[in-house]
Every structure is written in structure tokens, then in C-alpha cells.
Write a structure and sequence with these properties.
This protein is of the alpha+beta class and 392 residues long. The chain is built from ten helices and 14 strands. Strands 2-4-3-14-13-12-11-10-9 form a nine-stranded antiparallel sheet, with helices on both faces. A three-stranded mixed sheet has the order 1-7-6, with no helix packed on it. The protein has a two-stranded antiparallel ribbon with strand order 5-8.
């Protein structure tokens, strides 16, 4: 299929910002044993191939299923349309709003240590923010009941982004784009997903510790969980090697948008770059409650009505920077994300012993591709069943 490099105004999903059908069972994530299940894996590979062939579907998909020490990697399509190479577990990718789980991991680790409280307010920790936002608590930011207006929907922000997608924003001033706006609703009164929430979470973590958010990520998340290839860049360049992300919008030519947008404009809300291997390590520790004590885990899993964006498989409930996905085969905890070129699901069982990392190389959400999103969620549920019950 024809490919264009980024040249036009970017499509906007949750974070503003090709159908080759080769499938295989890859080597496992480095250091893990692999025990293939040919029949089940053949069915899963067929499901991925169907997704890649679908109108507007991703050029490549990779899924990592881990059960104890057993790892299965199922993939379809290609990581790079120019070279035709297949996706690999150590390829870098934009994790989009799954980065919100990382800001949650930092904040909840600080709550566990006593540096923050879930009842701390913006007025107490960030007094320079608008007085009208002062009563919003850390808990409400983490479960998206804060009412903060979403800076990524601000006309001023979007004007800059459209004029120069690689513009270098001051990440710590992103909330200034909506500082003249009141809350959308009284704090705690309803659920509404907002990119502003996790910017504020990171700023509260910095205020509580006097340490930059990037250093807190390394100290509290990367090092404890053994993440080797995860970072929070400010620019638009991707570390090599990487899964190329594409805008697939027939009849327009397929466009490589991997390096379309500067991550400074999404920061703690969606700017992290990682790999399927690292995200597997992350979600097993984070969703499995390994980063903080039992009391904090209990608070994190106080579920309310709300879905991740895009919605994950099965029925969704929202916790503190974590979502519960109740599938026909059981429950997984995790997060999703989407941004130009990428759509992500990372999830694990509540004990962290089983996990699924599912990455596609085009943006799929309810606004852009509702039919494809329904198909994606159905495929993800099949993978969840393969993980939880050994069913394809």
C-alpha cells in the first residue's frame, strides 16, 4: 500500500496530538521460557490476521501473554512497512494513555510512603492553580471524577498543535491552557476521563517531593519493576528499533505517523515510550499490587462506573489509575491508550501472575473507528480467555 510521511494536520483521538498478513509465533520475551500451544495459538493468530486485514486495520499487531514463567508471543503483519520485518517484544512504541497508569504508580507509591494522601487537594499542594479547582483531591484526579477541564481539547492548545505538531510545549504548564475555565462539575459527582487529571497528578508528586517527575518514575517504577527500555521523552523521535505507527484511513494513502507529535504536549498523560516486554513487566507488578501495601491496593480497587479510553475488553469499571475489565472468562486489571499510530491494552490478573500486553500500530477509538474498535475489543477478549482459561 502507498505510504506517506507525516505532512498533513494530525487526527486527534483521546490524546490530541496496510494490510500485510504475515503471522507467526515469536520467540519469548528475553529470559522467559516458552511453551507453545499450537491449536490455540493458530486460532489467536487467525484473529490477529483478520484484524490486520480489516478496513482501516493496523499494519502490525503484537500480543504478549504471560502465565507464571511461560510466555507466548502472537503477532500479525509487520513492524515497518518499508522493510517488512515482523513486530518484536523489544520494539519501542508509544504507550499513549497507558502512561496514566505510570503516574498512578508514582502517586500511589508516594501515598504508601506517607508523602501524599489521597485526600490532599490541589489547593493545598498546587496553590498556584485556579482557586476554583482547589477542592479537587488526588483521589478524584486518579479516578477521573475531578471535573478538571481537559487541556487537550483547548482551542489554543489545538491551534498550536495543528500549526506545528512537533512544537515543544512546557509540559508543566499544560494546565495553563484551561486555567480560565471552571470545573466541569462538582468534584466527585461524576466520571469523566480527562488528560488534565494526570498532568495534575504528576505536578502534585513533584510538589510533595521536590523531585522531577521523570526521576520519580525511575526511582519508584522503572527500577523496582526492572524496566529497561521505558522513558518519558520530550521530543518526537522514537528510540530504535521501534514499531512504526500508521494513520490508516482509506482511501487516503497510509501514512507513517510514528514521529508526528512531540511528547511534551502529553507528558504524564500519555508521553511514555516503552516496549511490549517492559509493559509486561510493568503491568504484572502494578496491577498485581506489588508496588505498594495492602491498604493502598484496597483504595486503588474501589471501583466506580467508568471506562478507559478506548474501552477495554468486556465490561469496564474505573479505579485509581487502573481499570477492571470483566470478560466472559474472568477479570483483568489494567489500562488502555490511543494516540496517532498506536492503540494499547495492558492488563493482568489481580495477583499479577497472568498478563496480556496487546499493541496495534494504528489509532483505534470510538470517534475515529467505532466498528474497528468493536472488533478489537472482541479480539482482546479472545486473548483474555486464552490467558485466563486456556481458550482461543
Amino acid at each position: 500500500m502507498p505510504i506517506r510521511r507525516a505532512s498533513r494536520r494530525p487526527r486527534l483521538g483521546t490524546v490530541p496530538l496496510v494490510a500485510l498478513c504475515l503471522t507467526s509465533l515469536s520467540p519469548a520475551v528475553a529470559g522467559a521460557a516458552t511453551h507453545p500451544r499450537p491449536d490455540a495459538d493458530s486460532a489467536l493468530k487467525r484473529r490477529l490476521a483478520e484484524l490486520v486485514r480489516s478496513p482501516g486495520g493496523p499494519p502490525g499487531v503484537i500480543a504478549v501473554l504471560k502465565d507464571g514463567h511461560r510466555t507466548r508471543v502472537v503477532r500479525a503483519g509487520v513492524a515497518d512497512l518499508d522493510t517488512g520485518r515482523e513486530p518484536r517484544p523489544n520494539d519501542h512504541m508509544r504507550i499513549a494513555s497507558a502512561a496514566k497508569a505510570f503516574s498512578g504508580a508514582v502517586a500511589l507509591s508516594l501515598v504508601d510512603r506517607g508523602d501524599l494522601s489521597l485526600d490532599d487537594t490541589l489547593g493545598e499542594r498546587l496553590p498556584d492553580l485556579p482557586d476554583a479547582w482547589g477542592a479537587v483531591t488526588l483521589r478524584q484526579l486518579l479516578n477521573h471524577t475531578s471535573g478538571l477541564p481537559d487541556y487537550s481539547e483547548s482551542p489554543a492548545f489545538l491551534e498550536i498543535l495543528f500549526a506545528d505538531p512537533r512544537h515543544r510545549f512546557d509540559s508543566r504548564k499544560l494546565l495553563d491552557f484551561v486555567a480560565d475555565r471552571p470545573l466541569n462539575f462538582p468534584p466527585g459527582s461524576r466520571y469523566r476521563y480527562s488528560n488534565s487529571d494526570n498532568i495534575a497528578v504528576a505536578l502534585m508528586a513533584e510538589a510533595a517531593t521536590g523531585t522531577r517527575y521523570e526521576r520519580l518514575l525511575r526511582k519508584l517504577v522503572y527500577v523496582p519493576l526492572g524496566l529497561r527500555d521505558t522513558s518519558l521523552p520530550q521530543g518526537y523521535r522514537m528510540p530504535r528499533p521501534f514499531l512504526h505507527g500508521y494513520d490508516v484511513s482509506p482511501p487516503d494513502p497510509t501514512e507513517d505517523v510514528s514521529e508526528l507529535i512531540s511528547m511534551s504536549g502529553v507528558w504524564a498523560s500519555g508521553g511514555i515510550v516503552s516496549t511490549p516486554a517492559d509493559m509486561t513487566r510493568f503491568v504484572r507488578g502494578y496491577a498485581g499490587g506489588k508496588l505498594f501495601g495492602r491498604d493502598v491496593v484496597r483504595e486503588q480497587r474501589a471501583w466506580i462506573d467508568g471506562a478507559s479510553e478506548p474501552a477495554g475488553p468486556g465490561s469496564n469499571k474505573a479505579g485509581l489509575a487502573l481499570f477492571r475489565y470483566t470478560t466472559r472468562c474472568g477479570v483483568l486489571l489494567g489500562h488502555t491508550g490511543n494516540t496517532p499510530g498506536y492503540t494499547q491494552l495492558v492488563a493482568a490478573t489481580p495477583d499479577g501472575k497472568k498478563s496480556l500486553t496487546f499493541s496495534t500500530t494504528t489509532q483505534i477509538n470510538q470517534t475515529l473507528k467505532p466498528d474497528l474498535l468493536r472488533q478489537l475489543r472482541a479480539v482482546q477478549e479472545d486473548f483474555a480467555c486464552a490467558l485466563l482459561k486456556g481458550k482461543g
